[in-house]
Design a protein that fits this description.
Elements: E1 18-22, H1 26-35, E2 39-43, E3 49-54, H2 59-70, E4 78-81, H3 87-92, E5 95-99, H4 104-109, E6 112-114, H5 121-129
Parallel strand pairs: 4-5, 5-6
Antiparallel strand pairs: 1-3, 2-3
Length: 131
């Protein structure tokens, strides 16, 4: 099952790796996140949706594990992103590439900007710069 929609009137009874909640007040989302130090809180751009997830479940954590297992450096990795949850990997990987349809913060942090999702930006960037 990929997603369970729950209105939180009753306790959540299923194990979860992340929770996405619609919270109209950013301070409330931050307060909730501060209560659980093992979690991170990220707001999706332009929306009231906030993702609460274990810090170990973040994209950069996965990149570190894979890089270690495969024995290559973070500086050898190209990361593509478009939203707040991509900022860390865009900043920390060897090459950060923002999607043309991405938020300004990601574009500013990136080394390159490729085409949008609708323009097959990732594939075109890889063909031009890696293959």
């Amino acid at each position: 099952m990929h997603g369970v929609y729950h209105d939180f009137r009753e306790p959540v009874s299923q194990k979860s790796y992340k929770i996405v909640a619609e919270i109209f007040n950013r301070e409330t989302a931050t307060e909730i996140g501060n209560k659980y130090s093992e979690c991170s809180v990220i707001q999706f751009s332009g929306e009231h949706w906030h993702r609460f997830a274990r810090k170990e479940a973040e994209k950069m954590a996965a990149i570190r594990v894979i890089a270690g297992d495969e024995k290559f450096g973070i500086d050898e990795i190209a990361a593509f992103g478009d939203d707040y949850n991509d900022l860390e990997m865009i900043r920390k990987c060897g090459t950060g590439i923002a999607m043309a349809n991405g938020i300004d913060e990601v574009k500013q942090a990136a080394d390159y900007i490729c085409g949008s999702n609708n323009e097959d930006g990732v594939g075109r960037w890889i063909e031009k710069n890696i293959l």
